[in-house]
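hiii, so i know i said id send this last week but things got crazy w the move. better late than never?? heres the sequnce for the chain we talked about at the cafe, plus the structure i predicted for it. fair warning i was half asleep when i ran it
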Amino acid sequence: MSIISLTTDFGDLYPAAMKAVILGINPNVQIIDVTHSIRQGGIREGAFALYSLVPYFPAKSVHVGVVDPGVGTLRRALALKAGPEGEEQFFVGPDNGLMIPAARSLGDMEVYEITNKELMLRSGVSATFHGRDIFAPVGARLSKGMPIETVGPKISDFVDLDFENFGIDGQFLVGEVVYADSFGNVITNIPEAAVLKFRNFGSQVEVNGRKVSFVQTYGFVKQGDALALIGSHGFLELAVNKGNAALQFGLKNGDPVAVKVL
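okay and structure toks below
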């Protein structure tokens, strides 16, 4: 059975229309909802959601991502193939960087512009719902084994996005928030290797001027205490044991984070 994942900022109602289109083309596909709760227009947030999950999907999976504040403008529609030969996964969505980190993490990335109108919704393409009218039908056809070259020409001038714009400045690791999950845990783009180069578990760090314990997991501090750890995504994470770090630290997606090694 083929798999299509959906990642959007749509909330309710609209994902059902995409699923209906997909099932109309490939009734045997399994649809997995990654999330439809991305902050509206939160491209980096959506990109991180995809990036953190695609390694666990099987070969030939198709990921349809729609966080698309530029819908209906001159921004392009893209389809991507990534991964070693025989283990490829596919991505469909807007040309705004949303899919790039996830695809690049798999290696051997190829990017195509979707120009073949025969692949789009037969009843017409609206100016405001390309998720239903372009991305869902293209994703469904890819899930049935359509060669990706069918969508249109290969390109190299796509909009890029990465999570590696962190820095080291003396005692400071400087990065940004890339995701705050439903528990209020704040995930930064500072990778594990950079942190462990300077600090071992059981010590302290200073995050935006506030001292916290650097530990392996949430239960190693008292309830209500803040902590820093390496999360399951492989990045430095701020948390509060049975609390909400995003609220306590006043951090949201895109905010800067400076970690001082004590």
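btw The first helix runs from residue 14 to 25. thought thatd interest u
miss u guys!!
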